[in-house]
Amino acid sequence: MKKIFAAAIAAISCAAAAETKIATVDMAELVRLDADYPRDMKAISEKRAGFEEQLFKMQEELEALGADLRKQSESLQTPNPMLNPSVLEEARRKFDADRKRFATLQQQFMLKTQECDNILGELRSLLSRNAAEKTRATIAKFAKEKGYTLVIDSGTTVWSADGVDVTEEVLKFAGIDAEAARAAAKEAEEGARQRLRRPAGGGDAPAPASAPASVPAAAK
């Protein structure tokens, strides 16, 4: 009786396995080759370029003020002995006021940089989610039409049998010319890199200028 029961279970398991049709796809590649990918890349790069323009203007102001503060500091360290005391005192007050203004502008620069990073991060996440949802919907339609019971992302698969990756089939199903889509994606990525190139020194954002940390001793 036990042998008969075991045989029955084995037969059911084999039947279930025979009915299961599994495939894998390169999810990242499908998202990258989606028709909206170049548009999304352009949206991100243009948004970032706009932010960088604001940050560079702030940097220019900081650098100009920092250079002026250094000149003021040098002048106050070795003041002209013939200079009227009241004029010298006014120069000291101006230096102190400009130094405080520099510190405020520098803080604003750092906050603006963080704000831009946050906005760009949210935009990237939104576009990524939308692209993933669109790709999953396409995969679901493809799987139903082709009779697949399970489609797995190859990026998270340790091993799979040869011949089960259907990435190219999904692209054809979606009406995407893979070669043309890869060329468009590469062009969009290169365009983004060109728009985001930095001046000498590089970095993700302009580095704030520096200035004397305090009023020179002569001004105390």
Give a verbal description of the structure.
The protein is mainly alpha-helical. It has one domain (about 20-220). Helix content is about 70%, strand content about 5%. It contains six helices and two strands. The chain has a two-stranded parallel sheet. Helix 3 (about 35-75) runs antiparallel to helix 4 (about 85-145) and helix 3 (about 35-75) runs parallel beside helix 6 (about 180-195). The longest helix is centred in the middle third of the chain and has 62 residues, at about 85-145. It is rod-shaped and about 100 Å long. Mean pLDDT is about 80; it is low at about 5-15, about 195-210 and about 215-220.
Write a concise keyword list for the protein shown above.
220 residues; two-stranded parallel ribbon; 4% strand; rod-shaped; disordered C terminus
Beta content comes to under 5%
- Terminal CA distance reads 103 Å
Uncertain residue ranges:
7-15, 196-208, 215-220
* Global shape: rod-shaped
- Record field, number of beta strands: 2
Secondary-structure map:
Blueprint: H1 2-19, E1 22-25, H2 27-32, H3 37-77, H4 85-146, E2 150-153, H5 167-173, H6 178-195
Parallel strand pairs: 1-2
Helix pairs in contact: 3-4, 3-6
